[in-house]
Write a structure and sequence with these properties.
two-stranded antiparallel sheet; 5 strands; elongated; binds zinc ion
Length: 133
Amino acid sequence: MSKWKIDNWIEECALKPIEYFSPTAIQKDLDIEINQIFDRLMFLVNDEKLKLSWRIVCPFCFRQVDICNNNDVLPRYVDCWECGEIEVTKDMVYPLFSISDEYRQELLKQKKTQKKSHPLLFARREKARISCH
Ligand SMILES: [Zn+2]
């Protein structure tokens, strides 16, 4: 099931020092249709495992200008240090996801228990994690 592959990807990601990831990063790694990835990510947002943010990208130089939390109101204007003040339009805004603190804690806790009870299994998992990137 590709949705479980997505879940696995997120679990791996939670153990790395990655703050935000985009649906396209998963697409690159797993070769799953982007709509399917997005649906699964939104499901996990509702499940409070993930948090949704918005990345605002300058339409002229493609620099990331700002990141807003889902609950924030998007600014009407942003300042690109290269291009100056720009009015924010829909096509400049891209979804970004981050792992909620609670879920990350939970995953770390599970890892620790596995390490104690099953050292071999943990070693194998650890290897898989390194070779996947
Ligand atoms: Zn710019």
